[in-house]
User: Which sequence fits this backbone?
């Protein structure tokens, strides 16, 4: 397994959509990628567990589980409010009201389902791994649990964000929060027919779990 | 004196309680939700109105006025009640339409388009989730008059901004993008009002009606000529100006959105049939007449070749094209004229339809003039990008950024909407073939339809982000 370089990512982006080796990242503001990864920006939609309205989730063990888990998280929207930064100049400080408008405040020991602003289509021969950006890791924001993206997956990527620190953190919509590393799968993947599979394929919102057997 | 003063106090306390309830209702509704900026500003307006009313009523209760003024204050209270009941309905619909139960990206794009076309940053279209299966524009004239009146009586009572328009979509269609293209027609009504075209149309129409009435010797055919003339003036102007408003909104929407608006209108008419094939009703022109206008403008705006293309529903356009040849004689007015004019009902209706045909030309000129300088025909972007957009939708990908001939492109939201509608109406077959699921074919189609709407919404939202970031 080898990591895709910046040049290879750019080449893949230029391939026609019907080519199984093509890759899509949209909206694409610029192509200033790292040499071995791309930045993922925080999207506008979140699902916060509505703690008061559910007693317990028991995956696979309840008759009406689907109805229960579909409604447990509450969908929240925060408007896009990225502040444009000019090279060499400091970004103007956000006013507190701006921060509240364009950011989700995550309390200590709380978790939220979010999505990336980017909608990604993976090539047929490439898997991906989501990594927390190191600056965010240093304030104890963690993106865990399901960071692996299969070949040919398409959709906004779901981020399970936890604040494992001791202070509330504002998660600003539109700012880079994670990185995606692309890895070429060696040998035959058998997925060269461009099919759309999986419960969450094509999602643009953080979707509630389905726990389908 | 004591009795009337008690009545004033009692009504005052009722109003204060209503203000408190309404304020709490709005605040509770807003605690966990984010609204569109326009909706937020509108709710702020309502809160400010409530504050002003609260202060005013408290002052009246604290210091009861002189006997001769009490009746005037009671009248003020009556007017306030009227305004609050209006504002209650609107605040409820605004609260219902929080940003996630609304075609969010479409509503923001609609506002962007309105501001660009009217060249004004102050224009705002508040989009509300209505409780009926209809799209409509609130007639704010009465509310505006009422609030203007209150602002003269109550210190600090805010005047409702002239630039605000309120549009409503069926709340159950909250997540739809395609069918909500009908909102552009409703925006057209607001622009009609703003351009003040009605005044000119009315005076010209009434002049012509007088000529018809007097010159056509109509007065000899009716029993009470004076009453018939008055009733006729009212009947003719009410109906024809309503039809004019509808045609303006149609021409506006078809010119701005292209075929997507026609498809959206047909879709909503399938859900709630109007039954107005060739009949003009009290409020709307006949469907076939409207489609005749749609066909005309789709041709003029260069959509014809695209619609005739074998890949783009040519049978749909053939049907529409038939409407192009309809003459005004084909249409009838399906209303009863006032009793004074029943003797000449047929003649009057024929005259109205002929005159209306002439009036439509004026309306078309007015819309075209507005869209001449600052509006590029949407078909040009469509021609450049439609193949890629459709291909992206077939592959289940949001079509907001793609490369064509090595160049990065971001299709315009109107291109996205039109491609989305063509793709949807053609049955989404390439997408359905590509999706592997355990769902049965009906549920699979419903699921794909929902996904398609969400991708289109995301593409429109992305375009606005790219615009904000200066990347277009």
Assistant:
């Amino acid at each position: 397994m080898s990591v895709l370089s910046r040049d290879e990512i750019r080449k893949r982006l230029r391939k026609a959509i019907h080519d199984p080796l093509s890759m899509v990242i949209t909206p694409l503001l610029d192509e200033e990628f790292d040499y071995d990864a791309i930045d993922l920006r925080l999207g506008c939609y979140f699902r916060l567990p509505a703690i008061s309205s559910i007693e317990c989730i028991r995956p696979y063990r309840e008759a009406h589980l689907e109805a229960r888990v579909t409604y447990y998280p509450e969908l929240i929207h925060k408007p896009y409010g990225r502040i444009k930064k000019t090279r060499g100049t400091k970004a103007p400080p956000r006013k507190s009201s701006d921060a509240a408008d364009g950011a989700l405040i995550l309390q200590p020991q709380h978790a939220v389902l979010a999505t990336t602003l980017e909608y990604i289509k993976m090539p047929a021969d490439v898997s991906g791994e989501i990594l927390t950006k190191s600056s965010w890791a240093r304030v104890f924001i963690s993106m865990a649990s399901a960071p692996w993206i299969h070949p040919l997956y398409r959709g906004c990527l779901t981020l399970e964000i936890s604040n494992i620190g001791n202070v509330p953190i504002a998660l600003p919509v539109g700012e880079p929060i994670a990185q995606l590393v692309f890895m070429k799968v060696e040998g035959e993947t058998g997925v060269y027919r461009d099919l759309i599979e999986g419960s969450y394929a094509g999602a643009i919102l953080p979707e509630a779990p389905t726990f389908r057997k | 004196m004591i009795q009337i003063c008690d009545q004033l106090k009692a009504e005052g306390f009722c109003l204060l309680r209503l203000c408190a309830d309404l304020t709490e209702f709005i605040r509770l509704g807003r605690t966990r939700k984010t609204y569109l900026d326009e909706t937020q500003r509108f709710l702020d307006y309502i809160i400010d109105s409530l504050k002003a009313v609260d202060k005013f009523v408290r002052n009246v209760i604290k210091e009861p006025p002189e006997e001769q003024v009490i009746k005037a204050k009671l009248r003020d209270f009556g007017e306030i009640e009227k305004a609050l009941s209006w504002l209650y309905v609107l605040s409820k619909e605004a609260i219902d339409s929080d940003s996630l139960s609304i075609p969010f990206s479409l509503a923001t794009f609609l506002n962007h388009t309105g501001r660009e076309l009217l060249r004004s940053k102050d224009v705002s279209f508040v989009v509300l989730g209505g409780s009926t299966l209809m799209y409509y524009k609130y007639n704010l004239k009465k509310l505006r008059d009422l609030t203007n009146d209150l602002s003269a009586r109550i210190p600090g009572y805010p005047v409702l901004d002239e630039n605000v328009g309120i549009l409503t979509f069926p709340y159950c269609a909250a997540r739809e993008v395609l069918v909500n293209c009908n909102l552009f027609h409703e925006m057209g009504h607001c622009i009609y009002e703003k351009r003040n075209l009605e005044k000119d149309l009315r005076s010209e129409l009434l002049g012509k009606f007088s000529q018809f009435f007097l010159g056509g010797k109509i007065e000899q055919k009716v029993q009470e000529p004076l009453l018939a003339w008055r009733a006729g003036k009212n009947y003719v102007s009410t109906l024809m100006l309503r039809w004019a408003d509808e045609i303006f909104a149609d021409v506006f929407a078809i010119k701005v959105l292209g075929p997507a608006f026609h498809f959206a209108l047909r879709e909503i008419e399938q859900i709630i049939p109007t039954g107005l094939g060739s009949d003009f009703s009290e409020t709307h022109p006949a469907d076939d007449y409207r489609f005749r206008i749609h066909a005309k403008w789709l041709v003029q705006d260069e959509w014809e070749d695209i619609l005739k293309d074998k890949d783009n529903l040519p049978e749909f356009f053939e049907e529409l094209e038939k409407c192009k040849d309809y003459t005004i004689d084909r249409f009838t007015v399906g209303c009863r004229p006032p009793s004074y004019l029943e003797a000449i009902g047929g003649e009057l209706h024929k005259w109205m339809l002929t005159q209306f045909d002439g009036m439509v030309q004026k309306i078309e000129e007015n819309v075209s003039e507005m869209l001449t300088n600052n509006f590029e025909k949407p078909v040009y972007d469509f021609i450049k990008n439609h193949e890629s957009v459709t291909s992206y939708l077939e592959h289940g990908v949001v079509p907001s950024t793609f490369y064509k001939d090595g160049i990065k492109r971001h299709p315009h939201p109107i291109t996205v909407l039109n491609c989305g509608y063509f793709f949807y109406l053609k049955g989404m077959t390439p997408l359905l073939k590509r999706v592997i699921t355990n769902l049965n074919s009906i549920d699979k189609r419903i699921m794909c339809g929902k996904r398609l709407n969400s991708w289109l919404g995301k593409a429109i939202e992305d375009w606005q982000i790219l615009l904000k970031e200066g990347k277009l």
Chain B has three domains: 2-174, 214-370, 378-468.
